[in-house]
TrEMBL record:
Transmembrane portions of the chain: 60-84, 105-132, 184-205, 237-254, 260-277, 410-433
Pfam families: GntP_permease
Molecular function GO labels: gluconate transmembrane transporter activity
Protein species of origin: Bacillus infantis
Protein name: GntP family permease
Claim: Transmembrane helix is one of the keywords in the record: yes
Example of a GO cellular component annotation carried by this entry: plasma membrane
Keywords: Membrane, Transmembrane, Transmembrane helix
């Protein structure tokens, strides 16, 4: 009982302190300490028996294990995003889409820009930074309430693209290690779910914005709004080609190299961006340095949460909770989806939720004969639902730092399109797999 109080209390503390703005690198071990103390776990290896769980050993094992497995992907993904941004290639792609769709479809233009860049392998955070100035300009010209910009950015980035088959984002690649699948696992169901989320989510977002406008809301300028920087951009084709390079290389090598194919694909994207857009760079090596720093922060924050999970999963209460979720009646995919989604929600990280949950549930479901491709796709989609609760790092950064909004004003719409819509997509995916589609 005390162990369960420690587990739930530690997760609550993690969420609370994160929402208060504390650094995850501090919050992670602090919350893990709470779990360990209430569960009676030894704090140091010297106080534990041989092979026995302890706070420092389990925390650092989870932390370092995640860095070891995913550092190069984080590094090259962040650098690719930054060189796309610095060369203007990302802006060129976004402006092409905005120009084609026009002001009448301002919201759709923003969503589509984010979707193309995200599915092409550009880091979620870089996409938000790149598209925000154009989103601000479009919302201003269309006189739409600016508090919905975070929802438009998030919807195009972390929903129907991030967890779809073929996506170079790591949320689609983590299950490969545990299930022996490919990034295209369950692609038939993935395609249907992605289209559903895209259409239904866009309809709902437009409905919310239209309702706000009908109540008299409009765009309000601020003195701190960025001034659009006029600079020469590469041809849109030169922006699209590096994205295509990432997808093509990932497709060619995914069978032979599994998740390591992502390293070659993202490196190919960086090289292609440089060769095609050399004359447009403001400072290539500065972009590489900024990308490196961003990668260290991103992987450090995620690893801090995974380290917490390394401690949490070693206490008796965690196994009790996992047994409860995996014994839920009905399709085994339901239990797997709940396990991944709940852990991702509690940690505020889609990748962190998968890394903690999959080693525990994958062997259980594989022994039961569950189709690995179906489990891969369900795990990916479910990781991208409850992870977007208010304490999620991407949500906090996009709402507060990039868009300058408050959670009170902006999160309602963000929650609808990044939590409720993916949950509906998850339910559809489980239904389709249960009917035998894609298996």
């Amino acid at each position: 009982m005390l162990s369960m109080i420690g587990l739930v209390g530690g997760l609550a503390l993690l969420i609370f302190l994160t929402m208060r703005g504390m650094n995850l690198l501090v919050v992670g071990p602090l919350s893990a300490l709470f779990v360990a103390v209430l569960s009676g776990m030894p704090l140091f290896p010297q106080l534990a028996g041989e092979g026995e769980a302890n706070l420092v050993g389990n925390y650092m094992s989870g932390f370092s294990g995640f860095v070891t497995s995913w550092y190069l992907m984080f590094l090259l993904g962040a650098i690719f995003g930054k060189v796309m941004e610095d060369s203007g290639a990302a802006d060129s792609v976004a402006e092409l889409i905005v120009g084609k769709l026009g002001m009448k479809y301002a919201v759709l233009a923003i969503v589509a820009s984010c979707a193309v860049l995200t599915y092409g392998g550009v880091s979620l955070f870089v996409v938000a930074f790149s598209v925000y100035p154009m989103a601000l300009s479009l919302f201003k010209q269309a006189n739409l309430p600016r508090r919905f910009i975070p929802a438009a950015l998030a919807f195009g980035s972390v929903t129907f693209t991030m967890t779809s088959a073929g996506s170079p984002e790591i949320q689609n690649w983590i299950p490969i290690e545990h299930l022996g699948t490919s990034p295209y696992a369950g692609w038939e169901v993935s395609l249907i779910v992605a289209v559903f989320m895209m259409i239904f989510g866009y309809w709902w977002l437009k409905r919310i914005i239209t309702k706000a406008v009908s109540k008299g809301e409009s765009f309000i300028s601020r003195e701190t709004d960025p001034v659009a920087e006029k600079k020469e951009l590469p041809h849109p084709v030169m922006g699209v080609l590096p994205l295509a390079v990432v997808l093509v290389i990932a497709f060619i090598f995914h069978d032979s190299l599994a998740q390591s194919a992502l390293i070659i694909a993202l490196l190919g994207g960086v090289i292609a961006t440089y060769l095609l857009n050399r004359k447009y760079f403001r400072n290539f090596w500065n972009a590489v340095s900024e990308g490196t720093l961003g990668a260290l922060i991103a992987i450090g924050n995620t690893a801090a949460v995974v380290g917490f999970g390394g401690v949490a999963k070693a206490v008796p209460a965690f196994q009790t909770a996992v047994d409860f979720m995996t014994d839920i009646p009905g399709s085994p995919l339901i239990g797997g989806a709940i396990a991944v989604s709940v852990i991702a929600g509690m940690t505020g990280s889609a990748s962190g939720g998968q890394v903690i949950a999959l080693p525990l549930i994958a062997p259980h479901y594989m022994d039961m004969g569950v189709n690995p491709e179906a489990l891969h796709r369900v795990a990916a989609i479910s990781s991208g639902a409850l992870d977007s609760l208010p304490h999620n790092g991407y949500v906090v950064t996009t709402v507060r730092s990039i868009c300058g909004e408050t959670h009170q004003d902006a999160y309602g719409a963000v929650g609808i399109v990044t939590v409720i819509v993916p949950l509906l997509g998850l339910a559809l995916a489980i239904l389709l797999f249960s009917l035998g589609l894609g298996i």
